[in-house]
Amino acid sequence: MKCYFLLGTLCALTCSSVFASEAGDLAQQLAQEYLIVDGHVDVPYRLMQGEEDVGLSTEKGDFDFPRAQKGGLNAPFMSIYVPAAKEDEGVAKSYADSLIAKVEAMVAKHPDKFAIPKSLADLQKQVDAGLISLPLGIENGAPIEGDLDNLKYFSDRGVKYITLAHSKSNHISDSSYDKNRPWEGLSAFGKRLVREMNRRGVMIDISHVSDAAFWQVIDLSAVPVIASHSSARHFTPGFERNMNDEMIKALAANGGIIMVNFGSTFISGESLNSYRKISEQADSFAKKKGLSKNSQEVKEYTDKLSREQFIYASLDNVLDHFDHIRALVGVEHIGIGSDFDGVGDSLPIGLKDVSQYPNLVEGLLKRGYSKQDIEKILGGNLLRVWQANEEYAKRNRG
């Protein structure tokens, strides 16, 4: 009986390892075979902080061409992230231009590696030619500056989505991060902008906006909208930046998709709580010392706390979000919005940079997702939404 038990255990372990090996091999194959579209990668802002040639291997950051190739990445949306303060300074539009120029410079330096698509057909041609296609998405609608002509301007430059707000409420929408909510959702101009974005074929991104703004967008938009880098609030109670179950259902009913953010604090309630505790301790330290929160001493103290106390999410935690959303609305409404280069060192174990998409694919395979499911999640669902926006614009631009 003892021998039988050991033999059975050995068989189980061997079969399990074989399955794991097969899943890993298949994941690598699928990552190279299927189109991978990532809804949010913060390379342009990273380059504003310090010049690097991401066409070559880099020591810093989460993205460069060799790692993207290894991970099978075909079309990372380049986030044109405009900090909220730029609106107050009156330079939001020019700052967005400077970020777009960073992406254009990447393409000019490496035309054999990168290209910027201005349509879905462009993206498909670029990928077929072996290039990494770099669609643009403005994170924070501040650069519109209350003028619909600026929407046309950015659309003509290649911007395919706009995140209506960011960390502060702006002239378009209230922010999920801001206690000051002057519009109780969208401003009057914001409501006009939603309709005009539909008409221009620019996708509406509801990541970062308040819940009230989300519901108003859903009521107003004639086409599917996206959450370019959000996760499920079910796992992070009270974190409005993520989407609750009713919002996810409404997004799906609209035909849209939620593109799962990989940042640990978006994924794990335990991680989010550890981050909040670190922030509280750092604030207390700064107050006790009479220092600015931005001082070097406070930064070093915060970094020390983070090394000692921050709890990272795991790949399994990330997969739990995919499972939860699938159970709510099906795989047709899920995508990837990693936030690579945008969430610092908070990325989960197993998803640390763009070379590791195969780890996600392997995890999905092990959880019973079919190849067809995975193809939709990796990029097919986003292409469907993009196409719906393009087709509506062609019919209604006049």
Helix content bin: 40-55%
Q: Please, what is the average pLDDT?
A: 94
- CATH hierarchy class name of the largest domain: Alpha Beta
Q: DSSP helix count?
A: 16
CATH superfamily of the largest domain: Metal-dependent hydrolases
- How far from one another are the termini? 79 Å
- Estimated share of beta-strand residues: 5-15%
In short:
The chain is an alpha/beta fold. The chain contains 16 helices and 10 strands.
Task: Describe how the helices and strands are arranged.
Blueprint lengths: L1 H32 L3 E5 L1 H7 L15 H7 L3 E7 L3 H5 L2 H18 L4 E2 L4 H9 L3 E2 L2 E4 L8 H10 L1 E5 L24 H13 L2 E3 L5 H10 L5 E5 L14 H9 L3 E4 L3 H4 L1 H21 L6 H14 L5 H15 L4 E3 L20 H10 L4 H26 L2
Parallel strand pairs: 1-2, 2-5, 3-4, 5-6, 6-7, 8-9, 9-10
Report on the structure:
- The strands form three sheets. A five-stranded parallel β-sheet has the order 1-2-5-6-7, sandwiched between helices. Strands 8-9-10 form a three-stranded parallel β-sheet.
- It is globular.
- The protein has two domains: 25-262 and 317-396, TIM Barrel; 269-311.
- Helix 2 (43-49) packs across helix 5 (92-109) and helix 14 packs across helix 15 (357-366).
- Helix 6 (120-128) links the parallel strand 3 and strand 4 (132-133).
- The chain is α/β, with parallel strands linked by helices and 398 residues long.
- The longest helix has 32 residues, at 2-33.
- It has helices spanning 2-33, 43-49, 65-71, 85-89, 92-109, 120-128, 148-157, 188-200, 211-220, 245-253, 264-267, 269-289, 296-309, 315-329, 357-366, 371-396; strands at residues 37-41, 75-81, 114-115, 132-133, 136-139, 159-163, 203-205, 226-230, 257-260, 334-336.
- 47% of the residues are buried.
